[in-house]
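Subject: sequence -> structure tokens, single chain

Hey, anyone have a minute? Need the predicted structure for the following. Not urgent.
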Amino acid sequence: MQGEVEMKLAIPIFEEGVSPRFCFAPAVWLVEVEDSAIVSERMVTMQEHDFSQRLEQLAAEGVDTILCGGFNRAFIPRSNQLGLRVVCGLSGNARSVV
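Reply:
Had a minute. Here:
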């Protein structure tokens, strides 16, 4: 259906790029994509949250996919429970991975 957000992404950020580790990223870039275009974006500070709290916050934000460099595999089951798909192994400029 046109006009609906197709995907809400969370990209952990370090400086201007994708953070090498989800758990150490000071901020997450939340991006809503519709019809293959970014329709909404904002930064969310994550410094004060432990791993589980980060996942819960992203789920509460409506995120469906996390795009990141590295991700602790022990938290994949929790991510799945929260409805968060994790794509790791990414690097470079954050805009280039969207």
